[in-house]
């Protein structure tokens, strides 16, 4: 009963929860634009978001409406239980042109509408105002350009006729700008543009305002005294003035300028200078008040009192020990002002005074090398010449010849030639006896001439020599003196005693010799089985290595190698020899063999004699007195005894001479005969024992 009650309670709770759960389904969301998706400026526009939603009976849902511009820019959010929501755009402007959409959110559900385009046409014409229409050059005015009510990213542009004056971007519907205009009449206007992303829309020009700018009378007047044409050494004066009305204005500044250089502030002063030839040119007076500048200029011409002196040296190429003459002179001078003897000269070397004259003679040497200049002076005017660098030529010295590294016959090596002294460039020629092999030119004192050569014999090295030459006579060097390394020839290995006559206990000498090669020479000996044996470095062309008291294991193949500083290893042919037994061992073996043979012979002789003794004993035992027995019985006994003796002897013979099985053996057989009265002994004869056994 209790179980049924609990089950009923659970079912009731479930049904109650099922009744309380509310279900929502967003079927569709759409956006409507009224009165139209394309309107004129100033129209009131409404955006209506409509939602089609299904929900549980008896529920009262609350919706969230979100309006968007330009895809994701959120405009406004509303929370309501209505099935639609409106967003108002009052007095629409071109800046409202964009793409719009809306979205509906219920609990965790969200659904967006389709995207709608809204286009607003018609930019209003901007209005331009200025704070003044008449002003003096250098003064500024404030201009204001406005487009009331326009929204978005606006770019305002101020213009003077067709010339653009100022541009500025803002999100405000007006902008102010302070500006200065050049003298004359200005025609000011403005316009603005709006950026709609993919397109830019430009407004019409604003109203036109004329502005008059009066000139500021501060243009300077420049005067030169005594004249704009002068001669070097003359003094001239510059004077700059402006209109008397502005002369004492505290903001006025006047300057004397030549090129990029400001010479003097001329507001209250004049400027004087003693001119030189390079002072010729354009001079300007510049007056400044605020941002206004005025200019006046004059050209000054200065005639040379005398020309720049010219420095010369008597010869272009002078060797040490030869005389040189340095001369300084001017090519022209103002004869109406000075005479030639009034010009004084000075000659310098490395900025040190040599002589106060126009000529300087000296013998060329290392001390006379350097930078020469000269100076000419007259009427307080001083001019310096261009500098000349003089360096006395040096005869080339006797060239030195050398090699770098070892000289190996048959391999290329380098010969270097170098002279310690001599003016560059120096030409080096490598010669072999009287034959020119090669030449090269060196342009640095620290460089050597390099030649790649090869010698075939050591004596050939002394045939090389160098000749050096510059602009002077050539110099011959000494012949090359250098050590020459001859690579080793193929070694010859000799064995003493000769390979066929080597016995145990002998001392075997391995002699490795070469036909050619420069010492020191290293000889190495090798055995094919035990590898390296010995290495020695000697100053001769051969070396002997001794194997003392050789044994049978010294038998084998031997060879040697030779090498020297040429770093080339040469190997001999191989020699094989065998170590035979010592003489005493051979004699001992022979003696032992002979003794063994003698013992065998003695053994067989003793065996033979033993057999002979047995046969004689058997014969003696077989002889008995006469009896009445028949001949057959006597014969049978004799044969039986003989068989016994023969079998025993044959067995002994087979065990001792197994190697002589094929030999025929003989034994003595007694033939029974009738007694001969004349004889009392038996008669014996030899027959093959084998035949006896067959019987």
From TrEMBL:
<feature type="domain" description="Ig-like">
    <location>
        <begin position="309"/>
        <end position="387"/>
    </location>
</feature>
<dbReference type="InterPro" id="IPR003598">
    <property type="entry name" value="Ig_sub2"/>
</dbReference>
<dbReference type="GO" id="GO:0004888">
    <property type="term" value="F:transmembrane signaling receptor activity"/>
</dbReference>
<keyword id="KW-1133">Transmembrane helix</keyword>
<feature type="transmembrane region" description="Helical">
    <location>
        <begin position="587"/>
        <end position="606"/>
    </location>
</feature>
<feature type="domain" description="Ig-like">
    <location>
        <begin position="491"/>
        <end position="576"/>
    </location>
</feature>
<protein>
    <submittedName>
        <fullName>Platelet endothelial cell adhesion molecule</fullName>
    </submittedName>
</protein>
<keyword id="KW-1015">Disulfide bond</keyword>
<keyword id="KW-0393">Immunoglobulin domain</keyword>
<dbReference type="GO" id="GO:0007166">
    <property type="term" value="P:cell surface receptor signaling pathway"/>
</dbReference>
<keyword id="KW-1003">Cell membrane</keyword>
<feature type="domain" description="Ig-like">
    <location>
        <begin position="399"/>
        <end position="485"/>
    </location>
</feature>
<dbReference type="InterPro" id="IPR013783">
    <property type="entry name" value="Ig-like_fold"/>
</dbReference>
<dbReference type="GO" id="GO:0098742">
    <property type="term" value="P:cell-cell adhesion via plasma-membrane adhesion molecules"/>
</dbReference>
<keyword id="KW-0812">Transmembrane</keyword>
<dbReference type="InterPro" id="IPR050488">
    <property type="entry name" value="Ig_Fc_receptor"/>
</dbReference>
<dbReference type="Pfam" id="PF13927">
    <property type="entry name" value="Ig_3"/>
</dbReference>
<feature type="domain" description="Ig-like">
    <location>
        <begin position="27"/>
        <end position="113"/>
    </location>
</feature>
<dbReference type="Pfam" id="PF13895">
    <property type="entry name" value="Ig_2"/>
</dbReference>
<feature type="domain" description="Ig-like">
    <location>
        <begin position="220"/>
        <end position="301"/>
    </location>
</feature>
<keyword id="KW-0325">Glycoprotein</keyword>
<keyword id="KW-0472">Membrane</keyword>
<dbReference type="InterPro" id="IPR007110">
    <property type="entry name" value="Ig-like_dom"/>
</dbReference>
<dbReference type="InterPro" id="IPR036179">
    <property type="entry name" value="Ig-like_dom_sf"/>
</dbReference>
<keyword id="KW-0732">Signal</keyword>
<dbReference type="GO" id="GO:0006955">
    <property type="term" value="P:immune response"/>
</dbReference>
<dbReference type="InterPro" id="IPR003599">
    <property type="entry name" value="Ig_sub"/>
</dbReference>
<dbReference type="GO" id="GO:0009897">
    <property type="term" value="C:external side of plasma membrane"/>
</dbReference>
<feature type="transmembrane region" description="Helical">
    <location>
        <begin position="7"/>
        <end position="26"/>
    </location>
</feature>
